[in-house]
Amino acid sequence: EVQLQASGGGLVQAGGSLRLSCAASGSTFDDYAMSWFRQAPGKEREAVSCISSSDFRRYYADSVSGRFTISSDNAKNTVYLQMNSLKPEDTGVYYCAADKMAPCGRSWFLIGSWGQGTQVTVSS
Known about the structure:
Layout: E1 3-7, E2 10-13, E3 18-25, E4 32-39, E5 46-51, E6 58-60, E7 68-73, E8 78-83, E9 92-100, E10 113-114, E11 118-123
Parallel strand pairs: 2-11
Antiparallel strand pairs: 1-3, 3-8, 4-5, 4-9, 5-6, 7-8, 9-10, 9-11
């Protein structure tokens, strides 16, 4: 069992930066693929970034590649998403998720552990 708590969202102007955090409790996340998803208003949930549980390969959606960086701090049992050069289309609720002993890339509806989400709003 793992519980996730997402934080760090806020309102930022286009071109700005935010750093999201996902703190895990109840279990260490080194057995899990840790990922970030987002859901924009009126849009489907989409994968943003992921670290796999096996080889720690990092995954980025094409829309955020080069702008976002996923990282982890095992001592703090926390995963981060550094978001730079933010665009209005990055606006949405960002969720962290834990997928046990899984590679990155699984469909979101197969993942059982989710944080509550944190709102990111990017203004023009």
